[in-house]
Write a structure and sequence with these properties.
By secondary structure, the chain is mostly helical. It has helices at residues 2-18, 20-31, 33-39, 45-66, 83-111, 115-146, 152-179, 184-207. The chain has 8 helices and no strands.
Length: 211
């Protein structure tokens, strides 16, 4: 556990010292559509986006694995594992889910002869994950300072942050679809297939909710 916390702290310090400008640019792009379009033309943001996104996935995995009320009871294939191994399994699960989504989007992009459109959708999803994660970090730190990081309050705060970020992201996706000449029907189909289904899988995995 200690080396995971140390890795997250070191990564956060690296972000503050070396990736602060790209982070500000990506977060601003989440709030302003024109900036997000301009960001697509900057190849130097690729590594920064990847590092920031992986950091948020690792932070999310740590939160899920070490919170007392999440993954409780543990799924049968995680029983007997240490918290560290549970963290690695959750991280691998989230990475696999993201890679599957990315590959499927790329296949669709090639099929409809519009790879730039699907790539933009995928990067937008990463940016909003980064935005939601960095909004939640100060809340998590504040609740930890108060001394109850494993209570229901932090779960509610995480749910509120995720819901707010998703609503803004869904609106951004609608604008992307309309700008590309697609109807809102395809936007709804996209959300149901690539967003709601994976989100339901995550909920079922984390909270053992039968959907």
């Amino acid at each position: 556990m200690d080396f995971i916390i140390l890795g997250l702290i070191v990564s956060f310090c690296l972000i503050l010292f070396y990736i602060r400008a790209p982070l500000a640019l990506l977060l601003t792009g989440c709030l302003r559509y024109n900036i997000s379009r301009d960001n697509e033309e900057q190849d130097n943001l690729r590594f920064s986006r990847f590092f920031l996104f992986f950091f948020i996935l690792a932070l999310t995995s740590f939160f899920i694995a070490f919170h007392d009320k999440l993954l409780s009871p543990l799924p049968f294939f995680l029983k007997g594992m240490s918290k560290t191994l549970v963290f690695l399994c959750v991280l691998a699960f989230l990475v696999a889910l993201f890679l599957s989504r990315t590959i499927l989007l790329k296949i669709i992009g090639w099929t409809i002869d519009s790879p730039a459109f699907t790539n933009f959708l995928n990067r937008t999803a990463q940016d909003f994950c980064i935005l939601t994660g960095f909004v939640f970090i100060p809340v998590l730190l504040f609740i930890s300072i108060l001394g109850n990081p494993s209570g229901n309050g932090v779960i509610i705060a995480a749910g509120v942050a995720a819901t707010a970020g998703y609503i803004i992201y869904a609106y951004r996706c609608a604008r992307i679809f309309l700008s590309a000449g697609f109807s809102l029907f395809f936007w709804i189909l996209y959300l149901c297939t690539f967003e709601l289904v994976p989100f339901g899988v995550i909920i079922q995995f984390v909270a053992a909710i039968k959907i």
